[in-house]
Amino acid sequence: DCWRTYDRRAEQDAVRKILHHMNIEVVELAENYDQTEFCGYTLYEPCIPRNAAMAPRRFLEQAQGKFIPHSESEKRALMEAHCQQFETEEVVAFCHYCQAGLELGGMRVAHIAGLLFEPDQHGARMVL
């Protein structure tokens, strides 16, 4: 799950339902649903100004301790460490920032939109 959706359970459940209908097994991480603190490497760099302007409550008020700048090598190390917890070789993301972070960490990643709209390129072999 993505930090941007920690309080949107219906969206998280919908992703799982879609994957289930695609015969993709969901393997949960310990930090999921409202416990997630992951949004790729975007939480390790300054907040994108348009996001802060569009949703100040989410990206400013509810983001204490997040959006702290890190070097590129630090971001890579953080993403690699995050990816160590996966039990599968491939993962599915529903956030493009999460996808980019997982790829930086060395994971094989499919975005759910790719699974839905480009099934020939992905098939039902991906596991979350």
Summary?
By secondary structure, the protein is mainly alpha-helical.
Question: How would you sum up this structure, described in words?
Answer:
With 128 residues, the protein is mainly α. It is 44% helix and 6% strand. It has a two-stranded parallel ribbon with strand order 1-2. Helix 4 crosses helix 5. The longest helix is centred in the first third of the chain and has 13 residues. It is globular. The model has no long low-confidence stretch (mean pLDDT 92).
Number of helices: 7
Give the low-confidence spans.
none
* Chain-averaged pLDDT: 92
Strand order of the largest sheet: 1-2
**Rg for CA atoms:** 15 Å
End-to-end separation:
10 Å
β-strand percent reads 5-15%
Instruction: Please write the string of helix (H) and strand (E) elements.
Output: HHHHEHEHH
User: Helical proportion?
Assistant: 40-55%
Shape: globular
- How many E strands? 2
For the record, the count of structural domains works out to 1
Structural class: mainly alpha
Q: Main β-sheet, in a few words? A: 2 strands, parallel
